[in-house]
Design a protein that fits this description.
With 102 residues, the protein is mainly alpha-helical. It has a domain of 70 residues. Helix content is 65%, strand content 0%. It is elongated, with a radius of gyration of 23 Å.
Amino acid sequence: MAVVLALPLLIPVPGLSPRQYGVLAGPTVYAVPQVLAATVALDSPNMQTGTLVKLLRVLMLGSLVLLLSLAMRQRRPGDAGTAAARDGACRGSSPASCRWLR
């Protein structure tokens, strides 16, 4: 909440254009509605730029997680070293402390 209120006050400090401010506000502020609140103070293109940057970041995060999960899924069946490393890591430990490895 503090970022939403403080960010518009920082516009004149670095001398940002409205479009540059939208690009700054998009990844800086946590949620899309908060980006709208932080960027509506200037003008409509500023708000559109901030929202677009934020939504693109959210879309890239989802696709990155999907790609990583697919890569890990393909790697897992042929990975024989994982079980040996896991069994070696639990050797000499109590079963309760190594339960999360199994």
